[in-house]
Structure formats: structure tokens, C-alpha cells
Write a structure and sequence with these properties.
Number of strands: 18
EC number: 1.5.3.24
Distance between the termini: 42 Å
Domain Rhodanese: 34-78
Strand content: 25-35%
Radius of gyration: 21 Å
CATH topology of the largest domain: FAD/NAD(P)-binding domain
InterPro entries: FAD-dep_OxRdtase (IPR006076), FAD/NAD-bd_sf (IPR036188), Rhodanese-like_dom (IPR001763), SoxB (IPR006278)
Largest sheet: 8 strands, mixed
Cofactor: FAD; FMN
Bound molecules: flavin-adenine dinucleotide
Oligomer: single chain
CATH class of the largest domain: Alpha Beta
Family: Belongs to the SoxB family.
CATH superfamily of the largest domain: FAD/NAD(P)-binding domain
Length: 416
């Protein structure tokens, strides 16, 4: 079923009886050419591009819960491509370009809104670092504008410029960045993949791998054994646990990342603002809620909920940046398990087992990568070669020392 304005009018006039579920609910087949483990944004996008761009068929996505139950439905919806390092910047800019055409591509309203992002800086040295980042962004065709304090004050007059814990001296602005409705992205890719014949199988947990002579033959699941010539794992916060079932130990730690939303307020924040020095970032949803977050919880966990010291820390960051936020009432908070890699950058690579591929290590920033990650993982699964923008995301880089340490914090996952 194609969505269009005409369709909305027709359904309105005929009692809304023609709407169909966005995807089928198929029974698992005994075997597939390609099985994707994990029905988050990355797994669904991978299946979509495998079928659409690479012409593959007989594909299944196996999801242990329901579509949208993982981080794809828990994130703070920010999309951007303001990266510095050559291994990262072209990849995230490729993703940004895919975001820009995504809704037309999927014929689905994912509420992609290019409302801009501003990274605040507080010292001359930090301004120089942001200028360098902006130049690196320009080199890969991205947009970046360095705002001095006066220009910033015109855009966001409500920040606490002089008395904040870190006085604000300006910001790096990426106008094309913004937000997208996170679960809408999952639904759009699920619908698109389903229309191309992909089986999306929910409530189907992978509990083991069948590996024979160094080659994967299929997966054990709560709904029985499913054979597969190739298996792509895209399970985000569960990467270490799932890959351990194939005997693989990953350079990944799982931490909880929390997010918060206030009651609905009149429009005040037009884009996304990040306050790195205060470990706080914020935007405003279309419903008016202030959506904000901060650091990951400082210890390893697989619980999808966080602890109170981080809540206090994030609230302090918000108060330091814009004291009037203290008057807003908090509506909800939640947590998701993020797969923190040792250098803060992702992995899209083959593994030591033939036919088994890994997509993971997205840390707190994989939502923005969803389109490019799906495309690059599909490219790898289809051709056995990395996509040109993802050649640096090798699994062996932690052994060879070719790490992509965007934040420059070393092998300290909770600081990336
Ligand atoms: C609070 C929070 C805020 C965030 N904010 C942002 C942001 O603003 N911008 C940004 O770019 N990123 C953000 N992120 C990160 C982003 O959400 C993730 O990096 C990204 O969603 C991970 O990819 P995914 O969508 O495929 O993950 P998921 O949606 O988690 O998908 C993985 C799926 O695998 C399934 N699974 C796990 N084990 C198995 C198994 N054994 N068998 C079958 N299925 C299995 C899970 O149920 C899950 O549905 C945030 C994350 C959190 C938690």
C-alpha cells in the first residue's frame, strides 16, 4: 500500500477501513540465504538495502522482542555528521545524505527534521579544535558554521552565557543536522523491507549458532533451527552476549544510557544543543517536550534502566546551561543498553567464522548512522567487501592499533 495525500483523503471519506498492517507476520522458513539477527534500525535497514540495492532474496530478520523495542525506539533522535576523523566523517556524511532522501525512498513519514545542531565551546583551545572539526566536515562535503558568542546569542539567547560552570564562547553549528522520529524510522524500514519480500520475525530470539568446519550453517532460535548461508549480527547492546554464543570475544562493554523528557512546553529550542563540558544535550520534540540526556552510567549493565546519580548529574548539567529548565517538570525517563567499543567507533566487518558478519559498537550514537550502517552492512554481506565509507570499521583494528578514537580519550569506553 502506497501512502499519499490522496490516500489519506480517500480513507477519511471511507471510514479508514483500507489501512493495512505495515508488515506481514510470517512463520519462519526452514532456511534463508541471509539471516539478520536483531530487528533494530540497523538490522532492518540492512535487510532493506540487501533486497532493494543489492537484489538479494530469501532474507529474514529475527528479533527477540518486537520491532522498536531496542535502542532504535529509545534514543534521543539526533542525526548529524559533525565528525572529525577520516575513518568516520565520510561515513556519517553518507548517512546524512541518505537521511535527506529517506522519507521519499521509503514512502514513509519518519519526521526527519533538519533543525540543526550546535556544539558549544568554552575556551580558545576548544574553539580551535571545533574550527578544525568544521574544516574536516567541509572536506567531506558536510556543512559547518563556526558561531562566535554574539552570533550564538542571537540564535539561542536563553543560555547562561556568563555565569555557567563553563562560560560559553561560541559554538560549531551544523544546519543540516537535526532529529527524526526514531520508531518511525524502524517502522519505515520494516515496511520497506517487508514490501521487498523480507520476512520480519518477531518474538524469535537467537539462542545459538550452528557452526561446522569454521563456517556458519544457521541459528538456533526460540522458534526452532533456521538454516542460513550467511548470518549478519546487528544486536547493538547485546553484541557481546550474542557473539559469545559463536565463541567470539568482542572489544565491547555494555552500559546503560538514560534519556529524559519534560512536560510539553511552548517552542523554545529550535534545534539540538550539546554542552560537552557539562555532559548534557537537549532538543525539543514536536510535541513540546524537552528531550535531554548526558553521560552513560559508569558501570557495565544489561538492565534497560539507569541509576539516580546519573539523573542528578544530567539535571545539574541542564541547570548549569539554562537555569530556567529547573521549572520544567520531568515527564518520563528511560534507559537503553549501548554497546561501547574501546575507541568509541563502530565495527562493520567479517568475523573469524566464515559467513558470520558483525555490525556493532555503536556506543551512544548509532541512530544517526542507521541508513549508512544498513547500506554498508548490506554491501559487506552481498559482496564480501567493505563499503568505501566503512573501510576503517575493522574488527582487527584493536589488535593492530588502527583505532578511531574520535574523542581522544583512549581505551575508556564510558568516556567516549
Ligand atoms: C537513551 C539513548 C539515547 C540515544 N540517543 C542517540 C541519539 O540522539 N543519536 C544517535 O545517533 N544515537 C543515539 N543513541 C544510540 C542509538 O540508539 C543506537 O546506537 C542504535 O539504535 C543501535 O542500533 P539498533 O537500532 O539496530 O539497535 P536496537 O534497536 O537495540 O536493535 C538491536 C535489536 O537486537 C535484538 N536482539 C538482541 N539480542 C537478540 C537475540 N539474541 N536474538 C534476536 N534479537 C536480538 C534486540 O531486541 C533489539 O531489538 C541513543 C541510545 C540510547 C539508549
Amino acid at each position: 500500500m502506497k501512502f499519499s495525500a490522496l490516500r489519506v483523503v480517500k480513507e477519511a471519506l471511507t471510514g479508514h477501513k483500507g489501512w493495512k498492517p505495515l508488515w506481514r507476520n510470517p512463520q519462519p522458513q526452514p532456511d534463508y540465504d541471509i539471516v539478520i539477527v536483531g530487528g533494530g534500525g540497523h538490522g532492518l535497514a540492512t535487510a532493506y538495502y540487501l533486497a532493494k540495492t543489492f537484489g538479494k532474496a530469501r532474507i529474514a530478520v529475527l528479533e527477540k522482542g518486537w520491532i522498536g523495542s531496542g535502542n532504535v525506539g529509545r534514543n534521543t533522535t539526533i542525526v548529524r555528521s559533525n565528525y572529525l576523523l577520516p575513518g568516520n566523517q565520510p561515513f556519517y556524511e553518507f548517512s546524512m545524505k541518505l537521511w535527506e532522501g529517506l522519507e521519499q525512498e521509503l514512502n514513509f513519514n519518519a519526521m526527519v527534521s533538519q533543525r540543526g545542531i550546535i556544539n558549544l565551546f568554552h575556551t580558545d583551545a576548544q574553539r580551535d579544535a571545533f574550527r578544525r572539526r568544521g574544516n574536516a566536515m567541509h572536506l567531506s562535503g558536510a556543512d559547518a558554521v563556526l558561531l562566535n558568542r554574539d552570533a550564538l546569542r542571537q540564535k539561542v539567547p536563553f543560555l547562561n552565557y556568563d555565569n555557567a560552570r563553563f562560560p560559553i564562547k561560541g559554538g560549531l553549528w551544523q544546519p543540516r543536522a537535526g532529529t527524526a522520529r526514531h520508531d518511525g524510522v524502524a517502522w519505515g524500514y520494516a515496511r520497506g523491507a517487508d514490501m521487498l519480500g523480507v520476512d520480519i520475525i518477531q518474538n524469535c530470539e537467537v539462542t545459538g549458532f550452528r557452526i561446522d568446519a569454521g563456517r556458519v550453517r544457521g541459528v538456533e532460535t526460540t522458534r526452532g533451527y533456521i538454516g542460513a548461508a550467511k548470518v549478519g549480527v546487528a544486536v547493538a547492546g547485546s553484541s557481546s552476549r550474542v557473539m559469545a554464543m559463536a565463541g567470539q570475544r568482542l572489544p565491547i562493554e555494555s552500559h546503560v544510557l538514560q534519556a529524559f523528557v519534560s512536560e510539553g512546553l511552548k517552542p523554545v529550542i529550535s534545534g539540538v544543543i550539546t554542552f560537552g563540558a557539562g555532559h548534557f544535550y537537549i532538543s525539543q520534540s514536536d510535541k513540546g517536550g524537552l528531550v535531554f540526556g548526558g553521560d552513560v552510567d559508569g558501570y557495565n549493565s544489561y538492565a534497560q534502566r539507569g541509576n539516580l546519580p546519573v539523573v542528578e548529574d544530567v539535571a545539574q548539567g541542564g541547570m548549569a546551561l539554562m537555569p530556567m529548565i529547573g521549572r520544567a517538570r520531568l515527564l518520563r525517563s528511560w534507559g537503553g543498553i549501548v554497546d561501547m567499543s574501546m575507541d568509541g567507533s563502530p565495527i562493520i566487518d567479517r568475523t573469524a567464522i566464515d559467513g558470520l558478519y558483525l555490525n556493532g559498537g555503536w556506543c551512544y550514537g548509532g541512530f544517526k548512522a542507521t541508513p549508512a550502517s544498513g547500506f554498508a552492512f548490506a554491501h559487506l554481506l552481498a559482496t564480501d567487501r567493505p563499503h568505501e565509507t566503512a573501510t576503517a570499521y575493522r574488527l582487527d583494528r584493536f589488535a593492530t592499533g588502527h583505532v578511531i578514537d574520535e574523542r581522544g580519550t583512549g581505551a575508556q569506553p564510558n568516556l567516549h
